[in-house]
Amino acid sequence: GFFLVLVYFFMTFLKDELQPLEGLANGILLVFLVFTLAMARKGQSRYYASFWVEAVPIFWGGITVMLDIYWGYF
User: CA-to-CA distance for 66 and 64, rounded, in angstroms?
Assistant: First the structure.
């Protein structure tokens, strides 16, 4: 999981046109994903994973909206 998160983050910089705050938004998402992966344990309930699977896109969208409102780049 950690490796795939890093691959996703570095693939952001392979785009032809990169918005200035896109790297920041994906960096915040990287920290969030690494934290959730680090907190996961084998013996947890199934609801832990299903909650975070649904929470990640909402968190990512919230980051994007907040950066757009504050700086207006997206």
Answer: 6
pLDDT digits (tens, 9 = 90+) for 38-48: 888 888 887 87
Written as one letter, the residue type at 12 is T
CA 41-62-54 angle, to 5 degrees, is 40
In contact, 21 and 67? CB cutoff 8 Å: yes
Q: Tokens representing 47?
A: 């609801």
Question: DSSP label at 17?
Answer: S
pTM comes to 0.78
At 27-36, the pLDDT tens digits run 999 999 999 8
Q: Distance of CA 63 to CAs 9, 41, 42, 44, 68, Å?
A: 15, 26, 29, 27, 8
